[in-house]
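Listing 4. Sequential folding, example run.
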Amino acid sequence: MNKKNCFAFIIFFVFVSAVFSQASRPDALKLYREGKYKDAVAVCEAEISNNPNNMDSYAVLCWSLVGNKQYKEAELRAIEARKINSYDIRLIEVLGEAKFYLGKNNEALDMFQRYVANSSETAARLGTAYYYMGEIYVRQTKYEHADISFSAAVKYEPIYSAHWWTRLGYAREMCGDFKNAVTAYDRALGLNSQNYDAVRGKKRCQERL
C-alpha cells in the first residue's frame, strides 16, 4: 500500500470510528422523549462534564429535571446555564417552568413573557409557555388574562391536550362568558369524552345560559 492509499485508509478508519462512536452514544433527547428522565439527566451530566458550554445538553438536562419533578435542581441548573448564554430561549422557557412549579409566579411569568417575545411563531414550546402563563393568571384570579393566554396556547397546539381546552373553558366561565366557555369545554370533550372537569364545567355553564 502506497502512502497515498495508506493516508486515505486512515482517514476512512477515523471517520467510521467516529460514526460508530456517535451511534453507540446514548441520546439524551430520545431518553427524555421516552420519559426516561433519570437516564437523560445522567447522559446530559456526562456531556456537560466533557463540554461545559454544551447548551443543548443543558436544555435537555433541565427539561428532564422538570419532567422528574426536581424543580429546584432544574431552576439552579438553568440559572447556571444562562450564565454561559443568557439568550438561549430554551433555557428561558424551562426556567419559567421550574419557577412555576416552585410557586414563584411573577418570576415564572417574566420568563414566559421573555420566551414569547423572543420566539418565532413556530417555536417548539410556544403553546406550552402560553399555557403556563394562563395557569399563573388563574392563580392570580386574573381570568381575562388567563382566557387570552389559554386561547393562544390552544391556537398554537389545538389538539395537544383536552386539559388545555378545559382550562380555557374554566377561565371563560370565571369571566361569566358562559357561551364561549361551553365551546371550549366541547372542544375538550371532543378530545377526551371522559374528561370529568369538562363535563362538570359544561353542565355548570349550560345552567347559566
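-- end of first protein; second protein begins --
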Amino acid sequence: MRIISGNYGGRPLKTLPGQTTRPTSDKVRGAMFNMIGPYFDGGRVLDLFAGSGGLSIEAISRGMDQAVLVERDRQAQLIIADNIQMTKEAEKFQLLKMEAQQALQVVQGPFDVVFLDPPYAKETIVETVTALCQKNLLAEEVMVVCETDKQVELPEEIADLGIWKEKIYGISKVTVYVR
C-alpha cells in the first residue's frame, strides 16, 4: 500500500498483518478521495477507526491541516506511529489510543471530514454519526465518509445528515453523508 496523491504521493504505507484490521485498498482509497475532493484547502479530519492511518494520512497529503486518528489495537497504533513518522510532519497528526466511543468524549470539534470504517459497520455507524451530531463535533460543511461491506444498507438519513453519494468498489461500499 502507498499514499496515492498529494505531498506524500507514492510513499509506502505499512499495514498490520493478519485479520485484525482491514486496510482500505489503494484503489478504493483513490476512488473515495475522487468522490470527496480530491484535494482540500485546509480543515480537520477525524478517523475514528484508524487501522493503519492511511485515510487520514492521505487526507493530510491532499491538503487537510490536521488529523485526529483513533485506534484501540496496540499493534495498529505502532503501525500508525510509523506511518505518521514517514510523513515527516508528525505535528499534523494526533493519535488517540482508545475506543472510538471513548474518543468522542474527549475530542474537540469541529471536523470537516470524518472517516468511519468500523467493524460491524451498520450498528456502529448509525450510533457514531448520531453521537458526532449530538456532541456538535461536525463542521457545517462536513462530509462523513463511511466504508462498509457492499451488503450493508445504511439509512438515507442519520441525525441531521443525509446520503450525498454512494458507490460500490468490489466488495466495499463507500457512503458519504452531508448536511
